[in-house]
Amino acid sequence: MTTQTIRVVIAEDQAMLRDAIGALLALETDIDVISHAPNGTDALAQVRATKPDVLLTDIEMPGMSGIDVAVALRAERSPTRVMIVTTFSRAGYLKRALDAGVKGYLLKDAPITHLADAIRKVASGGRAIARELAESVWEAASDPLTDRDREMLRLAEAGRSNQEIADALALSPGTVRNYFSEAVQKLGARNRIEAGRIARQNGWL
């Protein structure tokens, strides 16, 4: 009986790691890495163009995060299954990923054989979640942030001023201040910098 080949797109902004994962997966006879993407925006475009069985993606990448890509693909009812491989072991990230429809979540220190087996499981319709994280998701605090809150806190984290953020998002500076005030209040922080730190520590950013 012929085994069906699993077509995979890899999205990872670190070129060396991206190439290494691709080379190791190429040794698997039933996995075909059809393309690589250096950022989330390119990953989404490649999935739309090639319709792979699995998108293997990091979380934090330029353009769009892996979770953002998963949300977009779910909204489009894409048949591609999303699997995240990341260094982020916080339950908040896992919970956000699962809410976005992600089917697999492994840590980057997992053996390559575990990754290949997880890809097979996800491609066949199952889920593959790092064992050390699977139970922690039930204890994760609820994410109080909106997508707009996240966008603004990321810009603040990058050192943007209120005026620069207002220009980037086509908002008035007063509206930006109001958004930050709400985000700070939601997180029980003293200012937007502390709000960003709290959100990052909980996996909400």
TrEMBL record:
<feature type="domain" description="Response regulatory">
    <location>
        <begin position="7"/>
        <end position="123"/>
    </location>
</feature>
<dbReference type="GO" id="GO:0000160">
    <property type="term" value="P:phosphorelay signal transduction system"/>
</dbReference>
<dbReference type="GO" id="GO:0003677">
    <property type="term" value="F:DNA binding"/>
</dbReference>
<dbReference type="InterPro" id="IPR001789">
    <property type="entry name" value="Sig_transdc_resp-reg_receiver"/>
</dbReference>
<dbReference type="Pfam" id="PF00196">
    <property type="entry name" value="GerE"/>
</dbReference>
<keyword id="KW-0597">Phosphoprotein</keyword>
<feature type="domain" description="HTH luxR-type">
    <location>
        <begin position="138"/>
        <end position="203"/>
    </location>
</feature>
<dbReference type="InterPro" id="IPR011006">
    <property type="entry name" value="CheY-like_superfamily"/>
</dbReference>
<feature type="modified residue" description="4-aspartylphosphate">
    <location>
        <position position="58"/>
    </location>
</feature>
<dbReference type="InterPro" id="IPR039420">
    <property type="entry name" value="WalR-like"/>
</dbReference>
<dbReference type="InterPro" id="IPR016032">
    <property type="entry name" value="Sig_transdc_resp-reg_C-effctor"/>
</dbReference>
<protein>
    <submittedName>
        <fullName>Response regulator transcription factor</fullName>
    </submittedName>
</protein>
<dbReference type="GO" id="GO:0006355">
    <property type="term" value="P:regulation of DNA-templated transcription"/>
</dbReference>
<dbReference type="InterPro" id="IPR000792">
    <property type="entry name" value="Tscrpt_reg_LuxR_C"/>
</dbReference>
<dbReference type="Pfam" id="PF00072">
    <property type="entry name" value="Response_reg"/>
</dbReference>
<keyword id="KW-0238">DNA-binding</keyword>
